[in-house]
Amino acid sequence: MASEDGGTGTIKVTEGWLSGPAHTYVTDISRTLRNGDPQTTLSVMSEDAGTYPGLCAASDKGRIDNADELHARFKSFSASLIGQLNALSTGLDTLGVTLLEVDQILRKGEEDAELTAGEMAAVLSDGLGGLGYRSTTTT
C-alpha cells in the first residue's frame, strides 16, 4: 500500500537498527521514566505533599476546608504515579532485551533469520507484553 509521501508503508528492520537506534531509544525512555525530573518531583511530593508549595487547598469556589485530606490524597496519588512510571520503565527494559534477542536471531544468518510476521510478533510479544501489547497475528 502506497502512502502519501510515496512510501509503501513497509518497514525494513535490520539487525543494526534493532541493536542500535531502536534499543537506544527504548532504554533512553526507560531511564527518563525511572530517573528523570518527573520521577524526582513525584518522589518529593509522595514523601511530603504538605510542604510542596504548588499544592494549594483552594478552588474557584473558595478555600477547601480539609487541606490535610487533600495533601494525604495527593501524596498517595504521587506514590501511585511513581509505581506506574516504574512499571512502564520495567516493560521498556524488557522490550530492550527483546530487541537485542531479535537482533541476535537476525545475525545468525540470512537463512536462519527468515521470520514470518507471526514469528516476529511472537518473539516481540514477550517484550511488549509488559506494556499491555497482545499479538493478533498468528503463525
Question: Please, could you describe this protein's structure?
Answer:
With 139 residues, the chain is an all-alpha fold. It has a domain at 15-46 and 82-129. The protein contains 4 helices and 2 strands. A two-stranded antiparallel ribbon has the order 1-2. A hairpin with a 2-residue loop joins β1 (58-59) and β2. The protein is elongated, with a radius of gyration of 22 Å. The two termini are 22 Å apart.
Question: In brief, what are we looking at here?
Answer:
The chain has a two-stranded antiparallel ribbon. The chain has 139 residues and is an all-alpha fold.
Order of adjacent strands in the largest pleated sheet = 1-2
- Outline, from the CA principal axes? elongated
Could you report the average pLDDT, rounded to the nearest whole number? Answer: 75
> What Rg do the Cα atoms give?
22 Å
* Tally of helical runs: 4
Distance between the termini: 22 Å
Per DSSP E runs of 2 or more residues, the count of β-strands stands at 2
Task: Provide the helix percentage.
Answer: 55-70%
Give the strand content: under 5%
**Structural class by helix and strand composition:** mainly alpha
| H and E string | HHEEHH
Largest sheet: 2 strands, antiparallel
Low-confidence spans: pLDDT under 50, at least 5 residues?
none
